[in-house]
Amino acid sequence: MTALQNVTVLGTGVLGSQIAFQTAYHGHPVVAYDISDDALAAARERFAKLADTYRAEVDGAADGRAVAALERIRLSSDLADAVRDADLVIEAVPEQPEIKADTYAKLAAVAPEHTVFATNSSTLLPSSLAESTGRPAKFLALHYANRVWQHNTAEVMGTQWTDPEVYRQVVEFAESTGMVPIEIKKEKAGYLLNSLLVPLLQAAGELLVDGIAEPEAIDKTWRIGTGAPMGPFQIFDIVGLTTAYNVSMMGGPKQQEFAALIKERYIDEGKLGVATGEGFYSYR
Prior knowledge:
- It catalyses: a (3S)-3-hydroxyacyl-CoA + NAD(+) = a 3-oxoacyl-CoA + NADH + H(+).
- This is 3-hydroxyacyl-CoA dehydrogenase.
- One of its GO terms (biological process) is fatty acid beta-oxidation.
- GO terms for molecular function: (3S)-3-hydroxyacyl-CoA dehydrogenase (NAD+) activity; NAD+ binding.
- By secondary structure, the chain is an alpha/beta fold.
- It folds into 2 domains: 177 residues, 3-Layer(aba) Sandwich (Rossmann fold), CATH 3.40.50.720; 84 residues, N-(1-d-carboxylethyl)-l-norvaline Dehydrogenase, domain 2 (Orthogonal Bundle).
- 49% of the residues lie in helices and 12% in strands.
- Strands 3-2-1-4-5-6-7-8 form an 8-stranded mixed beta sheet, with helices on both faces.
């Protein structure tokens, strides 16, 4: 049995809700935290949809396991309540350094001393957040890919301060939840997966803002040329355009231009990707 049993997930967006459900599906008690009752109401809908997805796509989930997972998830908008019994807190809040640092400062004040903190940040180095956690030895990155039940990598990346025993415990935890731990030897922005994926997405964004081609043509070219099941703009829709916007805003001039395009044409129109039924493509 892994040392990290009771889990709290901070943030119930697209990926946070998946992390929480996957963890509960594999037998862990989970508290899903978000900042408001409205956010938790949306989370309830996401969890119900995930249960349906697991029943349709995951072997054995239709035999009651998906329903049992729902019963292991408790929702809370009170941070102290959410983490009071946590062995592990997985942070999946928006990809903005100031939001993450503020979250950790508040978390450090209320979490038990033994609790391990893990960030699911896809671009930020954990060392840039370590000081704000108040416990750098018990802090590291645990990065998931979207559709965690299918793309089940869990990238584990520590900092110079991470206790090796904590690192080992997080690797064991990842295995206990049906994930494949990817042990990264030293810090690298983007980890392994996004170091490979982000250049593709950036190139697609530049092609769009420069008026070279529309998303459909760019995606079709990638799918035909590589045999990949999805093109970059389909990936953007799955990740969510809010995340795409936040990450692009931290990039260079071209990426910021792409972020402005996303905001004006899509986010401001309520088109956030698959989660809202429409992004670059319509899913209604």
